[in-house]
Amino acid sequence: MFRTALGAGLRSAPQARAPAPPSPFPSAFARSTPRSARLPSPVFTSVRHASTTSFSQSARDKLRARPFLLLVGLMPVFTFGLGVWQIKRLNWKVDLIHQLDDKLHQPPVRLPARIDTAAIPEFAWRKVFVTGTLDHEHSIELGPKTRDGQLGYHVVTPLVRGEGQDTILVNRGFVKREFKEAKDRLASVTNEPVALVGMLRDQEAPNSFTPVNQPEKDQWVFANIAEMARCTGAEPVLVDQIYEDHPGKVELLLREGIPVGRSASIELRNMHATYAATWFSLSLATAFMFWRLMRRPSVLTTAQYRGVK
């Protein structure tokens, strides 16, 4: 009976556990640090990986953005330079208008018998007085041109000034297109000596859009003074006849096919002030854009922030 009770007590008593192996860490660390803290955190690992990935990606984005920032930074300087250039052009145009206005207010001068063509640019737009006989057989119809909304041509006729004097070209003025041919404007054809006042012209510089004359087809679009002189046998000197009669007679003369000369004024287009204001406005706008881009947080910092958020 005693043996049976002893066996039952031994079976019901708790069994002792085997001792744990010694820890390689100090006992204080093992007691104060939980087991989970000694393992690498998956959250920390993912954040560090995302931060590294976003760092490299944002660095590439920043490198790609450099050409754009450089372009935006150069735009204010470039447009400001164009504005300064337009201011210089404005001053040049104003001085030119004043010079031409002074020439137009001077009294007409008589052209010399022999004209030095090299001196023409110095006296361009000066009023001159010429006399001679018009050579209608070698007239040139230059155009088409417009006057007061009407389509027509300018009649350029050689003026034979007499013995020992150079023959010059005279732009007699505008005629309607139905009077292009000399036989249709007989009222303007005269063999009597004429005296007229005009403006001495210089050769205008052609550009890439200037049409080409076709003398062999008698088609003249651009006033090429040297070319017209070769075809008519005159010297390369062109005078624009000035119409000084009553303005009310212009329409009557046009209906009769009589050329009407130009007015004694010069109209030069001067839009340089508008162009300068436009370029300076663009310079200010692009400078503000560049300032905003530079004040914006960098792409690198933003990408890092998004990666660790």
From TrEMBL:
Membrane topology (UniProt): Multi-pass membrane protein
A GO biological-process term: mitochondrial respiratory chain complex IV assembly
Superkingdom classification of source: Eukaryota
Localization (cell): Membrane; Mitochondrion inner membrane
CDD domains attached to this UniProt entry: SURF1
Transmembrane regions listed in the UniProt entry: 68-87, 272-291
Pfam families from the UniProt entry: SURF1 (PF02104)
InterPro entries in alphabetical order: Surf1/Shy1, Surf1/Surf4
Chain intervals for the UniProt region annotation (Disordered): 1-42
GO cellular component: mitochondrial inner membrane
Keywords on record: Membrane, Mitochondrion, Mitochondrion inner membrane, Transmembrane, Transmembrane helix
Family statement: Belongs to the SURF1 family.
Function: Probably involved in the biogenesis of the COX complex.
Protein name: SURF1-like protein
Native source species: Rhodotorula toruloides (strain NP11)
